[in-house]
Every structure is written in structure tokens, then in C-alpha cells.
Design a protein that fits this description.
- By secondary structure, this protein is of the alpha+beta class.
- The protein has two domains: 71 residues, Winged helix-like DNA-binding domain superfamily/Winged helix DNA-binding domain (Arc Repressor Mutant, subunit A, Orthogonal Bundle); 174 residues, Beta-Lactamase.
- It contains ten helices and eight strands.
- The strands form two sheets. Strands 5-4-3-8-7-6 form a six-stranded antiparallel beta sheet, sandwiched between helices.
- A hairpin with a 6-residue loop joins strand 1 and strand 2.
- One of its GO terms (biological process) is negative regulation of DNA-templated transcription.
- Pfam families: HTH_IclR, IclR_C.
- This is Transcriptional regulator.
- It comes from Amycolatopsis methanolica 239.
- GO terms for molecular function: DNA binding; DNA-binding transcription factor activity.
Length: 258
């Protein structure tokens, strides 16, 4: 197996364990989540365990992310951890709106939720949670990031990714391009219950040093809380916080913090 192919499979296994969270995952679970054959998964897990990247509970036989990843993460955090800045924005959004607020990062063709804080409104949406991954174009964070890529990048993505098999006809290229155009016009994305009926989301992009949409701030809640004119008010608040966070991250990078 070529080294690059092997690394890609190991990354799939590590991401599957990350998604499993505290309950951990059996070898069969990891096989199902990755689509890899069980013997292949077992070999990869054993090799990763030898290096400390995964750990196994000897009683249950379930696998977890290992201590070596924690140490590597500590080293990487000095350059890549933006959550120290984002946490304040997420808190302000939750406090001001009463909804659930989130911060997500783009990772290749996906967005990954890094932070969540719930406001004081008692009804919650649980589509997003810390560690949740969605393809670009799915949920409001993925839609706003995709919408603000270049036309060439969007065309390339839609040509090689089929979102309809899992996410339905609303995520076919035609309807998705319509939402991309609407998002570009407004400046923020709206997901009108396309993932879970009645659960709405809105998101604004946070930009990296090169002007690329690298992160997103999101608000989610029940449909009745996202009607006009409140939707326009929430959009304006998201854009304000996204702009402030983009500015803060750029200033920190200029001073060597990121």
C-alpha cells in the first residue's frame, strides 16, 4: 500500500474515533464508520496504538484517541487554536439571542463544529454539537463557507461530490446553487430546516489571513424563532460578530499569536 494511501486510511480511523467521542468505538464500529474492511481497521488501530495515537480499554475492547494526540494537539494549539477568540463571540451571540451559538472550522470539504453555547430559550436544536462534521453545502456553516469560495472552487466541488444520496434532493447542484446565490447576496447563510425539519440555522463566515472563508459563526433554533423580521436582525448580528472575530484573528496573527 502506498504511504500516502496508508496515511489517508489512518486519518479516517482517527476521525471516526473523534466522532465516537467518550463512549469510544469497537473495531466493527470503526469499520462501519470508515467503510474500511474490519481486518484493515484492526491492523491500523494496532499500529496507531503502538505509537500512542489510540488507546484500548482492555475490559470493553473499545478504542479511544490516545495520549500522543493530546501532546501533539498541545503543540499545534499555539499556532492553530482560534477558539480562545471565538469563545467570546459565541457567548455574546447566545446571550443576545437566546439561541444556540456555534463556531465551526473548515477542514477540506467539511466543516467541523468546535464550540457550542446554548442561550436561555428552553427549546434546543441538536443538529450541531462539538465535533460534528458536515460536508460543505450542508448546514448553514457549510453553506456559507461554500458560497464564499471562488466560482471555480464551487464548480469543482459540485462536480465531484454528490450530496443528494444522504442529504436529499434539496442538496442537488441546482437548488444548492440557488442558495449559494442568495447567501452571497445577503452575506449570511440560512438553512430552513433542510437537515432536520423545523430546525433552522443561520451562519456568517469568518475569514483567514488570505481572505478565504476559514470558519463560521452559527445560530440555530426552532423555525418559529427564525421568521422575518427577526431573521434579518439575527443575520446582522452574525455579520457583526463575524467581522469582529475576523479582525481580531488577523491582528493576533500580525503580532505572532497565530
Amino acid at each position: 500500500m502506498p504511504p500516502a494511501h496508508l496515511i489517508g486510511r489512518a486519518a479516517l480511523v482517527l476521525r471516526a474515533l473523534s466522532a465516537a467521542g467518550e463512549p469510544g468505538a469497537s473495531t466493527s464500529d470503526v469499520s462501519r464508520l470508515t467503510g474500511l474492511a474490519r481486518p484493515t481497521v484492526h491492523r491500523l488501530l494496532a499500529a496507531l496504538a503502538d505509537e500512542g495515537f489510540v488507546d484500548r480499554d482492555q475490559r470493553s475492547g473499545r478504542w479511544y484517541l490516545g495520549p500522543e494526540l493530546y501532546l501533539l494537539g498541545e503543540s499545534a494549539a499555539a499556532r492553530y487554536d482560534v477558539t480562545q477568540h471565538a469563545r467570546a463571540s459565541v457567548h455574546r451571540l447566545a446571550a443576545a439571542t437566546g439561541e444556540s451559538a456555534f463556531f465551526s472550522a473548515r477542514r477540506g470539504d467539511e466543516t467541523v463544529c468546535l464550540l457550542r453555547e446554548d442561550g436561555d430559550f428552553p427549546i434546543r436544536s441538536f443538529v450541531l454539537y462539538e465535533g460534528a462534521r458536515f460536508p460543505l453545502g450542508v448546514v448553514s456553516a457549510g453553506l456559507v463557507v461554500l458560497s464564499l469560495l471562488s466560482d471555480r472552487e464551487i464548480d469543482d466541488y459540485l462536480a465531484r461530490v454528490d450530496l443528494t444520496e444522504r442529504w436529499g434532493a434539496a442538496h442537488a447542484p441546482g437548488p444548492l446553487r440557488e442558495r449559494i446565490a442568495e447567501t452571497r447576496e445577503r452575506g449570511y447563510a440560512v438553512n430552513p430546516g433542510l437537515v432536520v425539519e423545523g430546525s433552522w440555522g443561520m451562519a456568517a463566515a469568518v475569514f483567514g489571513s488570505s481572505g478565504e472563508p476559514a470558519w463560521a459563526l452559527t445560530l440555530t433554533g426552532v423555525e418559529s424563532r427564525f421568521r422575518e423580521p427577526r431573521r434579518a436582525q439575527l443575520g446582522a448580528l452574525l455579520l457583526k460578530e463575524a467581522h469582529a472575530l475576523t479582525t481580531a484573528l488577523r491582528a493576533d496573527r500580525q503580532h505572532g499569536g497565530l
